[in-house]
TrEMBL record:
A GO CC term assigned to this protein in UniProt: cytoplasm
Cofactor: pyridoxal 5'-phosphate
One Pfam short name: Aminotran_3
Catalytic activity: (S)-4-amino-5-oxopentanoate = 5-aminolevulinate
MF annotations from Gene Ontology: glutamate-1-semialdehyde 2,1-aminomutase activity; pyridoxal phosphate binding; transaminase activity
EC number: 5.4.3.8
GO BP annotations, alphabetical order: protoporphyrinogen IX biosynthetic process
CDD domains cross-referenced by the UniProt entry: OAT_like
Superkingdom of the source species: Archaea
Keyword Isomerase set for record: yes
Full protein name: Glutamate-1-semialdehyde 2,1-aminomutase
Top-level class of the enzyme under EC nomenclature: isomerase
UniProt-listed InterPro entries: 4pyrrol_synth_GluAld_NH2Trfase, Aminotrans_3, Aminotrans_3_PPA_site, PyrdxlP-dep_Trfase, PyrdxlP-dep_Trfase_major, PyrdxlP-dep_Trfase_small
Length: 416
């Protein structure tokens, strides 16, 4: 039973969990037994249509057969060598085919490592110390990212984490998302190595960039010889095969990836212009290394996922599901706004517009939570936090799953 597992977990893990957002499920986290397709099955014998999908990586749904086959094939051959293997080249080729701005890439093991290393590389390349990020953007759990951070850092009231040296904090400048004037002013007055941005914010709920925000960032950063880093850990291979860069027609100097490119296994990557990437060890003097970098299991799962995506028009199918679900959400009587970009979306109650983190924080979180709990009772799992994104997968592209979701929304919409 989940209740018993939770009691035990509280004894062994801080706050009972190993990543804070998991503790946001009320009254206590349910424990998953297994997942298949669009569904997760709990230790309590319940099934839920899953719109969290491991917080984004599972764009094909749970335990996709083709990915499973490829992972098992790799397991038969061995799972860690500390020696290069063919599959890392195949995945790199596939990524740079779809994302031509990635001329060279380094595989790491999480989105956190990807952004941490991309920032270090930008500093090494420009010989400048400062970086600029946006309020509510989440770039993982390292020191330079945990300033006005979204996701669980906002959910649990620690957008600025304790434990980060003052000297580090002085190097991180924050602007409000969609505020180009702030960026222009800061870049004019300070030597900034890089601007790092989530091209669509997926860690304060979903917040799209305003028209020309990303193009404006490109122009301003070029003017001041500052690197532009697109953190595409969520948007890469989600908004389009070429990520947000293809979708919005803006090219970054460096891109960070994670989630989908590992097909549900641990992964991160950063890549970009050859001239910048060649500053990394061993060809250059900016250090990065990792025992598990480019591990063949994550490489195989990622490659298999991208192959299915190429074959099956996954982005359009997942977008169709998101359209159908948000059409029903629009009918909810309680005042709300829905932000959706392709196959990622979120609903905010009690506000008229959400275009930055400050506006997202004004939404009625308690109403969202009530709705999320109602949905769980009716067989649908939305993120347990207002500050996460709802995702759809290929496995949701099914009339019965869509109509069951719509019915669950209808039954869950009595909100006070
Ligand atoms: C945009 C973005 N960047 C970075 C990260 C960090 O990735 P990871 O959790 O794999 O460290 C996340 C999610 O956690 C993310 O959504
Ligand atoms: N918002 C985070 C990543 O995108 C959620 C994952 C986590 O913090 O466990």
């Amino acid at each position: 039973m989940s209740s018993e597992l939770w009691k035990e977990a509280l004894r062994y893990f801080p706050g009972g969990v190993n990543s804070p957002v998991r503790a946001a499920v009320k009254p206590y986290p349910f424990y998953v037994s297994y997942g298949k397709g669009a569904y997760i099955y709990t230790e309590d014998g319940n099934s839920l249509i899953d719109y969290v999908l491991g917080y984004g990586p599972l764009i094909l749904g749970h335990a996709n057969e083709y990915v499973k086959e490829k992972v098992i094939e790799q397991i038969e051959k061995g799972w860690l060598f500390g020696i290069p293997s063919r599959v890392e080249i195949e995945l790199a080729k596939k990524i740079s085919l779809h994302m031509p701005s990635i001329e060279k890439i380094r595989f790491v093991n999480s989105g956190t490592e990807a952004t941490m290393n991309a920032i270090r590389l930008a500093r090494g390349y420009t010989k400048r110390d400062k970086i600029l990020k946006f309020n509510g953007n989440y770039h993982g759990a390292h020191d330079y990212a945990l300033v006005d951070a979204g996701s669980a850092a906002s959910e649990f009231g620690v957008p600025n984490s304790e434990g980060i040296p003052e000297e580090v904090l002085k190097t991180v400048i924050v602007c409000e998302y969609n505020d180009l004037q702030c960026v222009e002013k800061k870049l004019k007055n300070e030597d900034v190595a890089a601007v790092i941005v989530e091209p669509v914010m997926g860690n304060m709920g979903v917040i799209p960039p305003e028209k020309d925000f990303l193009k404006g960032l490109r122009e301003i950063t070029s003017t001041y010889n500052t690197l532009l880093i697109f953190d595409e850990v969520i948007t890469g291979f989600r908004l389009s095969m070429g990520g947000a860069q293809e979708y919005f027609g803006v090219t970054a100097d460096l891109t960070t990836l994670g989630k989908i490119i590992g097909g549900g296994f641990p992964i991160g990557a950063f890549g970009g212009k050859r001239e910048i990437m060649d500053m990394l060890t061993p060809s250059g003097k900016v250090f990065n290394a990792g025992t598990f970098n480019a591990n063949p299991i994550s490489m195989s799962a990622g490659l298999a996922t991208l192959e299915v995506m190429e074959r099956e028009n996954v982005i359009e199918k997942t977008t169709y599901v998101a359209e159908k679900v948000t059409e029903e959400l629009e009918r909810i009587k309680y005042p709300h706004v829905i932000n959706r970009v392709k196959n990622m979306f979120q609903i905010f109650f009690g506000v008229e517009k959400v275009s930055n983190a400050t506006e997202a924080r004004r939404a009625k979180k308690e109403v969202y939570l009530q709705f999320q709990i109602n949905l769980m009772k009716n067989g649908v799992y939305f993120p347990p936090s207002q500050f996460e994104s709802v995702f759809t997968s290929l496995a949701h592209y099914d009339d019965n799953i869509i109509s069951d979701t719509i019915l669950a929304i209808k039954k869950s919409s009595e909100l006070s």
